[in-house]
């Protein structure tokens, strides 16, 4: 077996129809691969052409990419790493020749293609409509060429996008931050996708996505406002606060050298930016109270939370918090490109 990097392209239609969470659940739980990168794209003609050209064994997918010409089309690209990642992910996603089962692949469940029979005989039917929901390279060559294209266009075409064209013209929109916390990534499972699926009921658009490992310094800044509250309430408030920092970064501040505080932590989380009408309130309501035992049924923390600290996800509570928190985790950092370049240099 060989360690490989591959990508999965979640199409604009799958994003708009809020299929992202269920797709991610299958990608993680069925593959056992490590999710190491994610980025939103508004694919330009150049990126569409290069990705299409790379999919030499998948002409239907290539043609689909070429025809993504609507300015409001936005896609999510995920990077997965592990043993035989390319063949594993291709089998889970499906390809142009395997989109015909009853849920065997992700395309079977979430993609659409309708055939029109030409007539009698052995002639193959024409494809009238094709929407794959997900695209993944089938061969190593397709993966390498596609990854190179995604890296090259990731600054120009990717990042935190704007989905205002998909909302009514007079809608007042805002953006908010969600962090899917490290407790969801202890092993490959459906939990991260489950969180996203519950958030889908808000009707908001995902416009930003980053795989992030919070440093001790970032965790200290992020949860800085909590320290004063804990110290006032509890005799060992600082110890509780350090436990939160360790939960998010992997290390307690008092147990590691100061100069190491800026190093990337060991704990994985996913940062998501949602956009829409009343986004902050809608996300917070879907998340539920900090204490999962007090959360209503149907909320994320009731479904996935364990206690006040290990409670599945974080969401910004005000516009000022969105600005502060996204700055701390450097949401605009293009670590997606860094991951690809690092792997291709090997």
Characterise the protein shown here.
This protein folds into two domains: 3-159 and 339-344, 2-Layer Sandwich (Alpha-Beta Plaits); 173-332, Nucleoside diphosphate kinase-like domain (Alpha-Beta Plaits, 2-Layer Sandwich), CATH 3.30.70. Strands 2-3-1-6 form a four-stranded antiparallel beta sheet, with helices on both faces. Strands 8-9-7-10 form a four-stranded antiparallel beta sheet, sandwiched between helices. The protein has 346 residues and is of the alpha+beta class. The chain starts with a strand and ends with a helix. It has helices at residues 12-16, 20-31, 45-54, 59-66, 85-93, 106-110, 140-157, 191-199, 216-222, 224-233, 237-249, 279-287, 300-304, 319-328, 335-344; strands spanning 3-10, 34-41, 75-83, 112-116, 126-131, 134-135, 173-180, 205-213, 268-277, 313-315. The radius of gyration is 21 Å and the shape is globular. Helix 2 packs across helix 5, helix 9 crosses helix 11 (237-249) and helix 10 (224-233) runs antiparallel to helix 11. It contains 15 helices and ten strands. Helix content is 40%, strand content 20%.
């Amino acid at each position: 077996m060989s360690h490989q990097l591959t990508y999965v392209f979640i199409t604009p239609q799958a994003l708009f129809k809020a299929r992202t969470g269920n797709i991610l659940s299958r990608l993680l739980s069925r593959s056992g691969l490590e999710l190491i990168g994610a980025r939103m794209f508004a694919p330009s003609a150049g990126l569409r052409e290069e990705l299409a050209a790379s999919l030499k064994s998948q002409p239907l997918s290539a043609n689909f990419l070429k025809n993504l010409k609507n300015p409001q089309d936005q896609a999510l690209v995920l990077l997965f790493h592990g043993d035989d990642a390319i063949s594993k992910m291709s089998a889970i996603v499906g390809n142009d020749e395997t989109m015909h089962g009853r849920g065997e692949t992700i395309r079977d469940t979430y993609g659409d293609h309708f055939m029109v029979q030409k007539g009698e005989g052995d002639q193959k039917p024409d494809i009238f409509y094709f929407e794959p929901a997900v695209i993944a390279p089938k061969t190593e060559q397709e993966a390498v060429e596609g990854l190179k294209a995604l890296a090259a266009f990731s600054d120009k075409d990717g990042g935190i996008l704007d989905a205002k064209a998909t909302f009514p013209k007079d809608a007042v929109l805002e953006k908010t931050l969600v962090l899917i916390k490290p407790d969801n990534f202890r092993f490959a499972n459906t939990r991260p996708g489950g969180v996203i699926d519950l958030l889908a009921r808000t009707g908001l658009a995902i416009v930003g996505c980053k795989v992030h490992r919070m440093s001790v310094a970032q965790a200290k800044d992020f949860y800085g406002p909590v320290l004063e509250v804990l110290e006032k309430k509890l005799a060992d408030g600082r110890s509780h606060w350090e436990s939160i920092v360790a939960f998010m970064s992997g290390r307690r501040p008092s147990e590691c050298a100061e100069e190491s505080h800026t190093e990337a932590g060991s704990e994985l989380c996913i940062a998501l930016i949602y956009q829409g009408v009343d986004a902050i309130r809608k996300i917070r309501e879907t998340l539920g109270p900090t204490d999962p035992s007090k959360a209503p049924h149907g909320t994320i923390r009731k479904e996935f939370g364990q206690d006040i600290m290990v409670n599945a996800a974080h969401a910004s509570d005000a516009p000022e918090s969105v600005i502060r928190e996204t700055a701390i985790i450097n949401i605009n950092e293009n670590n997606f490109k860094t991951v690809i370049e690092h792997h291709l240099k090997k």
